[in-house]
Amino acid sequence: MEKVKCTISYDGTDFSGFQSQPKIRTVQGELEKALMKVHKGEHIRIQASGRTDAGVHAKSQTFHFESPYEIPEHNWKKALNTLLPCDIYVHETRKVPSSFHARFDAIEKEYRYYVWNEEGTDVFKRNYFYLFKCPLNMEAIKEACKYFEGKHDFTAFSSAKATVKGSKERILYEVTCNQNGNEIEFIIRGDGFLYNMVRIMVGFLLDVGQGKRNASEVHDLFAKKDRRLVGKTVPPQGLYLWDVKYSLK
Amino acid sequence: MEKVKCTISYDGTDFSGFQSQPKIRTVQGELEKALMKVHKGEHIRIQASGRTDAGVHAKSQTFHFESPYEIPEHNWKKALNTLLPCDIYVHETRKVPSSFHARFDAIEKEYRYYVWNEEGTDVFKRNYFYLFKCPLNMEAIKEACKYFEGKHDFTAFSSAKATVKGSKERILYEVTCNQNGNEIEFIIRGDGFLYNMVRIMVGFLLDVGQGKRNASEVHDLFAKKDRRLVGKTVPPQGLYLWDVKYSLK
């Protein structure tokens, strides 16, 4: 058996999320359908670095699969791109040691969240940004971003529905926010993320930008570990899984 | 009766074109459905500056309608945006004299066509650009653009299916092409356009950019008036109706 690591991007708009579900169009479903065609009807299961929700995009998502076929690694890219629908694209296929695991070996993930901050409505942005009309205090947001960096318990900033066992401590290496015209970009890099963590954090940061919350509350919220004390989860269409890093060279 | 002029944008991705068709989702159909709700079931017919094909976008399209209601002009914008789906947005509503006609009074139209020129595939561009992988000679394209400016018979550059009666002479005020990274933008302004004219012209210009055709052929093609001598029509998703100008102040 050969193990192949794939790096893909997808436009999440027309998917009901990443994970396979019967009779529903998902990213995993489409990937496994393409692999099944290559393998003449045999079901090949993929393992991704993690799931994404309905409407969430990926600029760079990673998964692996095992195949009985010996195919030059670059040909996997060609074969899959020929078979996949146009909202998924395979950027790279590489043979990896059998010990590699796309989920367990990931050492860092980067998410980005895009807000379009304008009073009107740009119909071309609606699936790719959170359209947000209220004026925002960028300095306040930038200050609040710093409070999230480092090792913290993110219970208050993760969905109460989360089923993760064990510690809810995560390390964020970077939480930054930049404005370029009407576009506001949040960059969040960390060693791991809890369910809905980025979307809840960005919701809080937008509250700070409107003067509804204060940057200095963050540490208190970490300590209280209560999701109900933080505001709403921002919508999925602004969120991008941007990169997944491995120690594998 | 009051006449109202509306300026809208729409994302053409999920529409089967502008013009109403039974049981099919069109821009006109959605606009008239919204107007019918405002008018308590009465069918209000709109007149647009022109149609756009399936998949073609509008950054600024214009239409007018007549209403028995006396509503402050800005309230029309609010009412329609509340009732319209999220892929249509009304930017402006203005009361106009009863003599105004969105189609017959248009004195200039601007179209833009966007090409994404990259070897890979960017899944986020596929509905908004023509994804074109071959390298292009921008200088050759820019030179060819100049040949299109001015008054010419565009028969060779319009669909053989066109049903326009009368002259196929049109005046193009501007035909330019700019590159910004992977993005190539064509700007085409004129007093009027024949069916598929922009998409056939851009198809020819991309042939010039690949060295398949020569800029100097344009005058000969104008003279021969034969659509079959020009290459293919580029896909709709790169095309935007960008602006419609009226003499109305």
Automatic annotation (TrEMBL), chains A, B:
Entries under InterPro entries matching the protein: PsdUridine_synth_cat_dom_sf, PsdUridine_synth_TruA, PsdUridine_synth_TruA_a/b_dom, PsdUridine_synth_TruA_C, TruA/RsuA/RluB/E/F_N
Catalytic activity: uridine(38/39/40) in tRNA = pseudouridine(38/39/40) in tRNA
Keyword Repeat in annotation: no
Catalytic residues identified in the record: 53 (nucleophile)
Enzyme superclass (EC): isomerase
UniProt name for this protein: tRNA pseudouridine synthase A
Function: Formation of pseudouridine at positions 38, 39 and 40 in the anticodon stem and loop of transfer RNAs.
Keyword tRNA processing: yes
Quaternary structure and partners: Homodimer.
Entry EC no(s): 5.4.99.12
Recorded GO MF terms: tRNA pseudouridine(38-40) synthase activity
Family named by the database record: Belongs to the tRNA pseudouridine synthase TruA family.
Ranges annotated as spanning the membrane: none
Highest taxon listed in the record's lineage: Bacteria
SUPFAM superfamilies tied to this protein: Pseudouridine synthase
Ranges for domain Pseudouridine synthase I TruA alpha/beta: 9-105, 144-247
Keywords from the UniProt entry: Isomerase, tRNA processing
PANTHER family from the UniProt entry: PSEUDOURIDYLATE SYNTHASE, TRNA PSEUDOURIDINE SYNTHASE-LIKE 1
Any Pfam family the entry gives: PseudoU_synth_1
Amino acids binding substrate: 111
